[in-house]
Amino acid sequence: MAHIKRFDHVGITVSDLDAATAFFVGLGLEVEGRTFVEGEFLDTVCGIPDSRTEIVMLRTADGSARLELATFVRPDHEPGSPTAMANELGLRNVSFEVEDLQGAVDGLAADGYGLVGGVGEYENTWRMAYVRGPDGIVVSLFESVG
């Protein structure tokens, strides 16, 4: 029995909502909205009494995917592993197809974000690179080749 109706979004908790938003806007995502959430609903869903979050919802230009960035106003966020590698359990990466991989990597480098490894090419089909963004978020960027 299928329970999933559709994919809606991926949510990521960050410490600096403005920096994370700027990072993803720099990649080409658009801000859909920004709001605070608190009260019985949030306390029930996340299981943290008296919590308050600020959320930014982003979407791709074509509207095909959304990304929710959230920061906890209270209680304070718990740090994750900012240097997590691909073999650590948990969210591995958020992936986006780009028109110009080297241009995207260079633009992020100018903003202080670097590659996790290098730029790889898979069977003359596509090129990919992992970039580590704010709070250690790994973003996979790829472009078609050939």
From TrEMBL:
Gene3D superfamilies: 2,3-Dihydroxybiphenyl 1,2-Dioxygenase, domain 1. Pfam families: Glyoxalase_4. Keywords: Metal-binding. CDD domains: VOC_like. Residues 6-144 form the VOC domain. InterPro entries: Glyas_Bleomycin-R_OHBP_Dase, MMCE/EMCE_epimerase, VOC_core. PROSITE patterns: VOC. The keyword Zinc-finger does not apply. This is VOC family protein.
